[in-house]
Amino acid sequence: MFITMITPECAPAAKVGGLGDVVQGLSRELGIRGNDVEIILPKYDCMRYDRIWDLQKSFSDLWVPFQNQDIHCDVYFGFVDGLKCFFIEPHSTHNFFNRGIYYGHKDDPDRFAFFSKAALEFMLKSNKHPDIIHCHDWQTGLVPVLLYEIYQHIGMSHPRVCYTLHNLKHQGVTGAHTLSNVGLDPGRLVNQNRLQNNFNHNGVNIMKGGIVYSNFITTVSPQYAHEIKFTGQGFGLQHTLNVHHRKFGGVLNGVDYNVWNPEIDQQIPFKYNIDTIKDKYKNKEALRHRLLLRQDYKPIISVVSRLDHQKGVGLILHSIHYALANGCQFVLLGSSPDSAINNDFLALKHHLNDNPDCHLEISYNEELAHLIYAGADMLVIPSAFEPCGLTQMIAMKYGTVPIVRNVGGLSNTVFDADYARRPYHERNGYVFNEFDSTGLDSALHRAIGLWYNYPQYFRELMINGMKHDYSWDHPGADYLNIYNFIRA
Fold this sequence. Notes:
Structural class: alpha/beta
CATH class of the largest domain: Alpha Beta
Number of domains: 2
CATH topology of the largest domain: Rossmann fold
CATH architecture of the largest domain: 3-Layer(aba) Sandwich
CATH superfamily of the largest domain: Glycogen Phosphorylase B
Number of strands: 17
Distance between the termini: 13 Å
Number of helices: 17
Helix content: 25-40%
Largest sheet: 9 strands, mixed
Radius of gyration: 23 Å
């Protein structure tokens, strides 16, 4: 099968969050299963060009209609960890993708509307006719709209579209001008059954357009699929998703075990598996040595996270104080796009600077992330909402016990040591329900108590987590079933 991913991210070259990891992991799995996979991305100036191999211009005469003019683009080709990637570079005073950051500008809807148009124009002009176009998040929501309103009538009738929603908090809400800019007719499309925003009837919702026009919609965990249909996590799209429920489902993301696997991880000093799990404690010593923590008989509790309100920053701060007051060490790795949140954590870092049991790293460092997963005993994820979450699945592969809130993909992957309705060999962490410090304290208390008082049972939890298979094998099969379904 010929599959084209149209996406704003693909790790490790262009990564803001989990979306980039998903595109990379799923594309690799589909390729392993014998499919021809190509990925189309914007050519950002801020990409990791050191992670793109053999980047070269492959198409230099692409003219994309936009705002009553034709914008000239070059298309580059290169390999990102073995994946075939095309990068679209527009030459325009709009300066779409040379801004030093991936997202965060007021004209983001127009930037990615242009990218969606350019991706389809590139496929048309280069005679690419994939069986499946797989689009990701609001940034590519106009791809199925453009395909069925314009491009299927001029030679692209073959592709079917799968559209994955990674986070419904961001939907690409804009005005009718964004549609006009790419040759779509707002008069036809801005109505309740198509792209009209469900709250502001003068507005356009790009994500809603993707939902309405795609052949199948997925999101990144079964629980999140339920939440966005029936709770406020849908951020206004609940009705639209329920109208289109027959072509909607949740597929749990996977983890790339070629990257995140303590048995082969080149980023950690001591490799280990279930049979040699004692070597995990050598990584614990190495983590303490690197971060200047004292060597002591204490558990290390960790956070590896983007620091924003979705991730529960208030509860993360609370967990630091709780851990230090209850005989633990604490390690945090993360940063925030919000300077106020960053400043709060920097102030706490300064306050705790001389504490030999705490290290806060207000940045992101991939190598250090690997060492934290390998060296920590527990990982805290107190999210307000969590579409899927990868960190809990990575942590379990490394024998690090997750402590999570019962929401989204966290509830599909972490099963409480004491209360889960599952056999003991499937229980792998600690879960709390309410988004408050009381629930978090209870989970932390139970986890810390088990570590100190019943180490053999804590070891069983670690091993249970390591035994769970959260690779891309199962989701890869699920996506191929979806592709075959919509092709039929």
